[in-house]
Amino acid sequence: MLFLISSSPDTKEFKTAFNLAKRMNADVCLLQNAVYASRNSDDTTLYVMSDDIRLRGITENEISGRLIDYDRLVDLMTATDKVVGIF
Amino acid sequence: MARKLTLFVNSSPYSYENTYTAIKIAEASLKKGFETHLVASADGVYNFLKGQKGKGLPHAGDGFKALMEKGLVVDL
Amino acid sequence: MKVDNLLVILRKPPYGTVNAAEAVRHAGAASGFEYKSMLYLIDGGVFTAKKNQDAGDTGFTGLGESLDLMSGEMDIFADKESLEKYSLSEEDLVEGVKIDDGEVLKKAIKEAQSIMIF
Predict the structure, then answer these.
(1) Is domain A2-84 given the CATH code 3.40.1260.10 in the classification?
(2) Which own/partner contact pairs does B55-59 have at CB distance under 8 Å and 24+ positions apart?
(3) Deepest in the core among A68, B21, C2, C103, taking most CB within 10 A?
(4) What is the pLDDT of residues A62-83, one digit of tens each?
(5) Cα–Cα distance measured from residue B22 to residue B28, given in angstroms and rounded to the nearest whole number
(6) Which residues of A touch C14 (CB under 8 A)?
């Protein structure tokens, strides 16, 4: 299962989505404002959209997790049994 | 095996980044030769209005039109 | 004569929602119409001042660059506590954005004729 999360880390939406994903052992891909959550995080399992960190002035060495592009995201979305998102 | 991807968009084009994300995912999916659909509901239908004059943000009308010409199937 | 003044407070990070772009646009436009305007970044809004934002060919307007350009015409402040919360320091911010420990905000709210919150 793959969760796509787009909300800013300081929102209720993000926290609900993120906690639910963890409880369900789902993979998580951070998009849009959710990419801020990959800064100073030690979670290396998160997928992080490269386009969205570039747009926000975040550099590769500021984040943990696996940087991906849209091509790779489509692979992940089509390989998994279920995609849950975006919120 | 042919693969199929369907996106669901329910937010308006110039208040959120969802339009941009959807355009980029649909573009990547079409490039891979996947059958790609988009279903728009609620304010998502505004992405497909004619004559949009948005500036400073990705243009929803132009973006989706270009993808529809490449095979994106849209249902409202 | 007292100069008209506008305070724009931005609470949301850029691009995910249009709030940041609109806050910057309104503060900038007011300053163009000879208002004294101030843009105050708080909570996730402080990310709008982050350096090296690269809009590339996305179609978005790069807002870090907008702040840099506008900072000569108007006051732009970032809230110290919010910056600390997100591990951002002065070196992470574009030129011309000043850091406030809360005193400027208190005064600005008291003195503003109009306040717009995004």
Answers:
(1) yes
(2) B56/C21, B56/C25, B56/C60, B56/C61, B57/B13, B57/B14, B57/B20, B57/C18, B57/C21, B57/C59, B57/C60, B57/C61, B58/B19, B58/B20, B58/B23, B58/C58, B58/C59, B58/C60, B59/C59
(3) B21
(4) 999 999 999 999 999 999 999 9
(5) 10
(6) 56
Q: Which amino acid is at C17?
A: T
pLDDT digits (tens, 9 = 90+) for B13-69: 999 999 999 999 999 999 999 999 999 999 999 999 999 998 899 999 999 999 999
> Which residue in B has a C-alpha nearest to residue A87's C-alpha?
B18
Which chains reach chain A with 3 or more Cβ–Cβ distances below 8 angstroms? B, C
* Ordered structural domains, chain C, with CATH: 5-117 (3.40.1260.10)
Q: Does B41 touch chain A (CB under 8 A)?
A: no
Asked if C60 is an interface residue toward chain A (Cβ–Cβ < 8 A), one would say yes
Q: Is C118 at the interface with chain A, CB within 8 A? A: no
ipTM: 0.94
C interface toward B at CB cutoff 8 Å?
15-18, 21, 25, 58-61
